[in-house]
Amino acid sequence: MKYSTKIHQLKAIQEKMKSFESNKSVSSILSYIFLTLILLNFTSFSVKAQTTNSNQVEIIKADSLIGINQPFMQMKKLIGNVGLRQGTTLLYCNLAVLNETTNILEAYGKVKIIQADTVTITGDTAYYFGNERKAKINGHVKLDDRTIVLSTSALDYDLNTNIAYYNTGGKIVDKKSTLTSKEGYYSTVTKLFDFKKNVKVFDKEGSLSADSLRYSTLSKEAFFIAPTLVVNKKDTTYANPGSQYNTVTKISNLKGRSTVKTEDYTMTADTMIYDPPTEIGVAIGNIHFISKKDKAILTGDRGRYAKKTGVTRVFGHALLKNVFENDTLFLTADTLVSLDNKETKTKKLYAYKKVLIYKSDFAGKCDSLSYNVSDSTIYFYQKPILWNLKNQSEADSIHILLKNNKISTMNMKGKSFVISIDTLTNYNQMKGRKMLVTFTKDSKIEKVNVEGNGESIYFAVDEKNTLTGMNRVQCGKMTMSFAKNKISKIAFLAKPEGKFIPPKEVKEDDKELDGFRWKAVDKPTKESILARVARTIPASTKAVKKDSLSVKKDIKAVNPVPLDKIIKKSKTKL
């Protein structure tokens, strides 16, 4: 039985004894004897407990000592420069009341508790429970363990487990940061802090906000156990539970669909490591890189971003969406690399392996590609094929120039071959070593220049749209002009050899040049590209979105356009 319970029983017995003294009946006398035996037993228990208690609080010093006379209680009042000890724990104050029977101490005025010369706690008043080795400190409380200083108005401290607890609001300060919360647990051994309710971390470079947080005062790392918002001078990070953040190095190890927003980019992924000082981010799992200035979105399975070099790499299900005024370019490949060189003011995109590209006025496929965003030039390598309206072009390499976001010119080198379907669905064909194709403003072929080993088949159609024959020509150089999707003019510049075949004499073998292959079935579409990069969103992502609701107000305050809406827009409207 605890001492406090015994004390209550003792007081009740004392009251009974007072009533017996005024009642001299036989029954009262017998009851008096019975109660006396109980008191003797209680006294024996108390003495035995005191003699076997090795945790007894000892008096070291005091200016004056007064004994307090209470039945069956050994109490002392200590006044002025009070010092007490229990093992390696020291307690100092101006005034103390020590109950030696219960081993409970009340301390008042400039209270200081020192544990093993490593932890110092100060306050206005304190209750110290010697048997349990627990303390309750109130009023202007400070805990200093040589690592941090914790300030609060009330603190519970367990000297057995070395854990401090507060629930009236607290603040910790170390060399570089300040942390506040409504409630907290702190271990002076592991140096780990568990904060709850309205957690805030501040330093010269930024702030952190969360509902709950674990923090190591040794490594200066914050462990996110609730949705957390980190705002620095150059970036904003929104992280979900399971993430980590170093308040010194500013490195974030983010998990659970987190987002980092910089001045130029927004990065979102299932897992992400971001280093603000070097401005390098590594992302894994359903990633999104959103470039605000270029109106471009990069998505994929894995990615890496380095702001200083301006290089962004995306691997696996890689997709670029480049938004123009009235159109969007879709580009997918095994790997996409974006280069933004601020010194030369050039922006380029490189695509490697299994490249597909689609825009409303053209589509294509190749093995690799480079897109110079600065001058709107796209280079296609390794036997590319392009489709434009009813035209198909292929060569060893092709590069096109965009004007006003529309295809303007196309340069073809090595085994160049252009096929154009006329109004009668005949295949006009041109081939040679080099070709230059120019387009009208509405993306129709306007002129084709052929240089080197030129060959052509074109079908003559009159004004009534009737086939009048087929021309088959070989010439080193030739130029063909088109109007209304028909050949309007042709010029042969170097000793042409050719023949005109009337409609009735045209054979099927005559209709195709060597190497003719119409590959319309391979033409990429917006739907085929999106289907290729499509992925299943994990069920855990839905749970993360639900957990994220508690900090959406904070995110909106930092980012007027919510990040989830930006990402949602990238998946639908684009």
From TrEMBL:
UniProt keyword list: Signal
Tree of life domain: Bacteria
Residue intervals of the Organic solvent tolerance-like N-terminal domain: 55-211
Record-given protein name: OstA-like protein
Organism of origin: Arcicella rigui
Lineage of producing organism: Bacteria, Pseudomonadati, Bacteroidota, Cytophagia, Cytophagales
